[in-house]
Amino acid sequence: MTTNRACVWVGARKVEVQERPIPAVGEGDVLVEVISTGICGSDCHNWESDKISKQLILGHESAGIIKEVGKGVTDRVIGQRVAIEPGFACMTCEFCLRGNPNICSNLKYCGLDPTDGTLCQYVACRASMTVPIPENISWEEAGAIQPLAIAVQLARRAALNSHHTLAIFGCGPLGLLILAVAKAYGVRKVVMFDIEQSRADFAVKYGAHAGIVPPQRGESQEPLAFAQEYATSLHKELGVGSGFDVTVEASGAEVCAQMAICLLKNGGTCIQAGLGKPLTSVPLFLLTARELNIKGTVRYTPGCYADAIDLLSRGLIDLKPLITSTYPLTKCVEAFEAQHARKDIKIVIMNQE
Ligand SMILES: [Zn+2]
Ligand SMILES: [Zn+2]
């Protein structure tokens, strides 16, 4: 333990490898030797921006080995394999006290300015932020436990069950992880949408019942009529009766948000997971007329990490097909260029290499 190489965001489209001090281990903390870290769309969003208050270590999807346990820690041991929860919730605000630290009003989050992330060799955090992982989960897969936990949280918000039909807009990593969780939960039919044929095809290879590139709306077509007509034709084509039980908008596109509502059956639930433009127009009157639900979802709640790890260790979910590249931390510049080029599905960085 002599170096703490870190991938640091220093300006627009610029990261560099810097040497940082090995963090001190306070009471109740553990020191984790980070082995793998997934790169996330939000890391890349930071990377592209120039709104930077300090040189920030990026990364928040990490796993590693406990190297040191602080005073008072009785339930973690040196050598233990763990995933790291990246949110520092205050545990005293009204939301934390009600069991929702994901919407903590004082939340600090790894890799989110000004809190340094986990794309480095050593991280110190509260012992309770580490979740043990069994030997049969590879380090590459361990680097994608955090986004899988987010998909588990989404399934909780939707109360997904095996009798449901599900439509997902967006075949990026989040959409595919939601597909994986839905399949593991035995959801009856999962249909995926994307604007790129190759991504829609991949979703089918990964277990979706159908992968569809929706048609473009013509200039003369009114947006709502277009969405409703398309929904009606799809319901017939896909054999989902009068609509889907659950739809997920994971693309952020306005037209997808409109379709995700129109595709629902009466009483159905749309989960908004994509971050689109701040003001999006959706057919709210349908919520009243057909008693629909729209729910947001953000991060994960207590137990989502453990559930994600359980799904992986029991072999109900295989993340390996999604991890299309790994890079050593020393090549993080190339890794961010590759993430930006969007040719990979999931990139994982090996922090010690
Ligand atoms: Zn992420
Ligand atoms: Zn709080």
TrEMBL record:
Q: What CDD domains does the annotation carry?
A: sorbitol_DH (cd05285)
InterPro entries this protein is in?
ADH-like_C, ADH-like_N, ADH_Zn_CS, ER, GroES-like_sf, NAD(P)-bd_dom_sf, SDH-like
GO biological process terms held by the UniProt record: sorbitol catabolic process
The record's listing under Pfam families reads: ADH_N, ADH_zinc_N
Record carries keyword Zinc: yes
Task: Give this protein's Gene Ontology molecular function annotations.
Answer: D-xylulose reductase activity; L-iditol 2-dehydrogenase (NAD+) activity; zinc ion binding
EC no.?
1.1.1.9
Cofactor field? Zn(2+)
Q: Which UniProt keywords apply?
A: Metal-binding, NAD, Oxidoreductase, Zinc
Q: Where is the Enoyl reductase (ER) domain?
A: 11-349
Which pathway does the record list?
Answer: Carbohydrate degradation; L-arabinose degradation via L-arabinitol; D-xylulose 5-phosphate from L-arabinose (fungal route): step 4/5
EC class, as a word, reads oxidoreductase
Functional description taken from the UniProt entry: Xylitol dehydrogenase which catalyzes the conversion of xylitol to D-xylulose. Xylose is a major component of hemicelluloses such as xylan. Most fungi utilize D-xylose via three enzymatic reactions, xylose reductase (XR), xylitol dehydrogenase (XDH), and xylulokinase, to form xylulose 5-phosphate, which enters pentose phosphate pathway.
Task: Enumerate the PANTHER family for this protein.
Answer: SORBITOL DEHYDROGENASE
**Which family does the record claim for this protein?**
Belongs to the zinc-containing alcohol dehydrogenase family.
| Protein name in the entry | D-xylulose reductase
What organism is recorded for this protein? Stachybotrys elegans
